[in-house]
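Hi,

Apologies if this is the wrong queue. I'm a grad student, and the batch job for TonB-dependent receptor from Paenimyroides viscosum produced an output file that my downstream script rejects. I'm not sure whether the problem is my script or the file. Here is the sequence I used:
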Amino acid sequence: MRLNLLLCFLCVSQFINAQYSISGSVFNEKGEILKNTEVLLRSQILKQSTKSNQEGKYQFTNLSNGEYQLILKRASSEELFDVIIENQDQIVDIGFSSLTDNDSVLDDLIINVESIKSKIEKEGFSVNVIETKEAGVRNIQTNELLDRSVGVRVRQSAGLGSSVEYNLNGMSGNSVKIFIDGIPITSYGPSFNLNSIPPALIERIEVYKGVVPIHLSDDALGGAINVVLKQGVRNNLTASLSYGSFNTWQGNFSGITRNDKSGFTLKANSFYNFSDNDYEVWGKFVRNTQPNGRVEQVRAKRFNDAYKSLGGQIEAGFTDVKWADQFFVGFNASESYRDIQHGLYMSKPYKGRFEEADAQVVNLTYRKKNLFTQGLNFNVSAMYSKRYNVVNDTVKWNYNWFGERMKDLNGNPILTNGGGQQGETTIQHSRREIINVRANLSYEINQNHRFVLNSLLNTFSRKDNDDMKSVIERQFVDDRNLNKSITGFAYEMKAFERKLKTNIFSKYYKQKIEKIRPTIKKIDGIDVRVNQEYNNEYDYIGYGLATSYLVTPAVTVLGSFEKAIRLPVDTEIFGDVGENIVENNSLQAEVSLNYNLGFKVGPFKINKHKVSLGGNGFIRDTRDRIVLKSSTRVNDAIETMPYENLQSTMSKGFELELMYDFNNRLTVFANMSKFNTVRNYEFDAKGNVNPYYNLQLPNEPFFTASGSIQYSIPDLMLKKSVMNLHYGFNKIAPFYTNWLQSDYFETPNQFIQDLGLSYIFPSHKFVLSFDAKNIFNKEVYDNFASQKPGRAFYVKLNYSINKF
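Support response: The file is valid. Your script probably expects a header line. Output copied below for reference.
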């Protein structure tokens, strides 16, 4: 009798250590289900067994990429197969290595491998999954990877280390939340950002737009970016070092080792970044004022923009033991130094203004699948962090873009108005303490029904102190506390032979804002120091739905909706001197109705060709949107701004993405996104006419397009080597930087092109890469017309050892 074994490789939740599950059905040549058939799976560190159920189905979960043996046992035979799980979409014919009964020949074995990317993108949410395998060996920052993804625009104020803002389908700023393995990145401190995490340490990046699943438990009204770090348990070491333009150095190291007998696992990683950021700037926003008051445009190098950051993390614990899939206790430390070249606009250059920061984080992680009973999964992560930063601004002279002191008609240096570069002199210290606890409990009744409960608790306290204030003034400094909790519940269902997938969820938000201000009060005629407390508490309920339907194996329709909430964060409420932000204690929470409707087609395979296409339309109907206030004055010398609420805004748009592959040698990606975000109210709350009704919000790039081409050449110069050639581009249409919509405040049309190559040596331990960015030296702008680097060159060396 001939047996046909159909195996479907599917992926499971990222909250467990595994990246994949193996599931399928066992049947004979007549298509009859084979019940109670024993199936075993084993590797060097794993051995599992199960039996096919009444429907002939079986499943193995909690699996990482790697090599396994799959064994099918019958009463009179045993079939053994070598199986390799790889992180890519493919259909592979796999043979067996031995048989004990020649009458049971398994000659029609097809293994369908569905990547995590494909599985996540078909769950109903509007989501992109960015894989980092190739980027890990190139001179590409994590933010650059994101910027090339459809519907994503990364807004960076200047060069390496400058402030970054993310725009997803017209929603930006703090409405877009960043996570590392489901933990908000804000807990790690400013030194630890997405550019601090090299792609070589990242398994994938998940970008959810508008509608966010509850496991990413934060008030991510505009969307969420979740960086999933590599979780492999094999012993390995990786390291890289790169050098490039503007004296830019970047290095990273990571390693993991596991004792197969005890399960004890040790992980460590570190990073280092440095750049002078002394690139040229030019154009209408770069001007010097002469002693006679005449203004001239100049071409100059940035002279006060150096950046340095370094950090490391170590975690110790156990993996794949009876009582835990993962248990880790870890410590993370990082620090950074950043010169500040100018304020929100480039009109006035600074010299001698800088910011220093450091952070220490202690964390605990526990994950267990099938806790107490089959189908009950639990994971919890807790984190305590102490963050410290200081902004130093004590230089009293005005400077021009050549780094020279400005002088009056008599040749005397011109002093600043307040004694510092941005205002009054300051050496402001900020101390922050953060506690973040996230717990997730899920119960899978069967393969088609699952319940999920998720909870987040975040407490934040901040105390500022300025060395330039008098002793008495420093005794009257506010204490600021911000607490929030978010609880989510979801029901996930699969129906119609798992073609229909539905996720229904609800979220409860609660926030408490507290400010304690010391003051003097007369009591019985005597001045007494007392504390005035300002408290505000808010709670909100949100809900949503995400669904997808597999029309054919290659065509999926997706739709999602969420009433989303976004609570104001500490920098928006309390201000941030280092980021030029003024406090605003009256901010209200954002509330938005977010809609997505999209499709994914493919991949279609014709001989050696493979094509896939995806698209999504979206609406964001938002009340009390929190934005950085835009100027309505004909004056670009403004250096600080508060955040404010906009009564109502409406965003509508669409995005498209195309992928083509030829013979796994030539790969082409292209995408575009267009949206329009306008003030959606004709009269304000007091009945006054809104002069900006139906106008596009300023400082929002409303049309972007990007693409890339990669060509691989195997066995070039050396056998088993691979040469990869890369080309990429980004297109950003002009946009206004304030409400006036004057040509003067419009950024230029931007078309930025990059080239690169990487050479993988035969041992696959060494990879050498070279990248040329912005090869035609175009003017590039993001936030408030702050110019980014022009042409730049970088070289990078990667080294890795696996299974040491």
